[in-house]
Amino acid sequence: MTLSRHRRPLVGALAAVTVLGLGACASNDATATPQPSGSAGGSAGTVPAGQPDVNGDGKVVIGVLSPGDINDKGYYQSFVDGAEAFASSKGWTVIKRGNVAVTDALNAARALCQQKVDMVALGASELKDAIPASEEAVCAKTAWYVPSSYNIEQTPKIVLSKDDPNQSILAAGYATGLLMQARGDTKAGFVTGAEADFSKASAAAFKAGIRMVLPNATVVNTFTGDFNDSAKAKEAVQAQMSQGVKAVYPYLGGATDAATAQANTGNLITLTPGTDRCASTSPKFDISVIFDPGQYFAAALQLFADGKLTMGVAKEWQLGVDQYPTIKICNGTAEQNAKLATLMSDIGSKKVDVAAEVKRLGS
Q: What structural domains and CATH numbers belong to the chain?
């Protein structure tokens, strides 16, 4: 899973998000393509000629590179699934490669371009070292889609897609606090991989969200060093359970299910790192934290299909404004759902200053 922006696990969030200039138009239809607010149109950026058949060979091929397991049921898989579902509906082809090492990102991108892809899509910002290929002759006739975690420079040849992970994670903590409050719990846990800036920031946002409901709650953080190592994740969850933790956020990639299954043995409140899995029973999740990169990518591909995907621009997806990201309490009461909806709306309208809340309550 990536934790690009969010990580966004899904992290990847996170996975890890950004934008492209679709007009805002949230829909109640779960199958509708989410439309982010704002516009990247006008004089900013350029639209590669011939979209979606950018290289003019009579077919459309999307190349996807992922730093993680594209069958992880999380962030990485979501991104690929989004591409394949949309491509299938259009009769396009998807060339995908998972577990791409950061050190191999540039060569992997060049290899995709040599296969005459019309778009190179990076599944997470960890592979940002591939971006220089967008300026090379081998990739001259390609469009580029890149999830961002704020550490990626905007260049003329790429479109950046990003969101603010603090928004989603603060709201996730708030939802957790509501469920903890109902059960009389006061101690939660956060289990993630590398002790990187983004993961530490996410841990702080999660704690702040819980403390918006339970001011005296405590949160135990564990950094396993690996987002995909199931054994380490299970060990971390078990250790937290031994410390009295009653809710845990497995902010992980391929290790998400193993960690959650372990948490289920102790009836802990659990959350997803990016996708909607409220229907899952094995393992069971109580809160879906949805910053699904597949949904963001599908919106970009729709623009691509319409010949309107602009390079050299960025768009940020907003909680409480766009359809995604969002938070869902799987079996929340009417009161809990209403409180969560109000918080997300207040974040979207800027009534709640996310950065200030994280600073105030997340330390």
A: 166-291+323-361 (3.40.50.2300)
